[in-house]
User: Fold F-type H+-transporting ATPase subunit gamma from Tistlia consotensis USBA 355.
Amino acid sequence: MTGRLADLEARIASIKELHDMVTAMRGMAAARREQARGALAGISVFADTILTAFGEALPLLPAPPPAPDSLPPGPRALVLFLAEQGFVGTFNEPLVEAALDPAPPAALFVVGTRGGQLAAQRGLPADWSAAMPSHLPLVARSADRIAEALFRRLAEGDIAAVEMLHARSQEGGLTEVVRERLFPVDPALARPAASAVPPLVNLPAGRLVERIAEAWVGAELTRALVEALAAENAARVAAMQQAARNIEEKIDGLERDARSLRQSEITTELLDVVVGSEAANGGE
Assistant:
């Protein structure tokens, strides 16, 4: 019985080490979630500045842009933001399902290695893929890479419009699946010009609007990456919290078993002492 108790105590110690590791992963994910959420305000200010410039540049065009709800005919691309790593529960599944509805896109740009594997298994192989940045300082570089790949395909004529699909974490641990138009930029988003005086420009109006649209795409990709990063880590926090609870319940059960074994050993030892004492007295 002593050997069994020793094995049980060793198992408890091992599971407690696992609990410490899960707790550390939860803390790291929570820190990254909060860092990402904290960056969103600054990104919004940057995006608003671009939209103000957009509103000042649009009136310079010789013809008004297309109606807000119209997209050019032709194949559409989808930028799908998924999880880079595991331990996120069912985070990827609703995003992949949404990408398939109503039909797979003509071109799929997948950001997120682990989620990309699931997408491929569900019949959504990526035409272009990249890792989801795990740290906030890497987001800007990732946004530039995605924008470069998108504009290359647009220039080649392979695609005519681009949408994004990503997760957005909400209060209470809920996650929202968000589909957004990325390109062409919706003219309805433009902020009204702050002044009736036309701005001074040194580019043709068409090229100026194109440059502002490119900046907007970069800002939107950055925002989507940050929201996806926050949502992935929020999902990981929830998964680690559930794992910690399961481990704690397991430890409680094992410790009850260990206490029972210790009590049994004590009882056995006492009985041995009593029996031995009685035998010794009887021998006298």
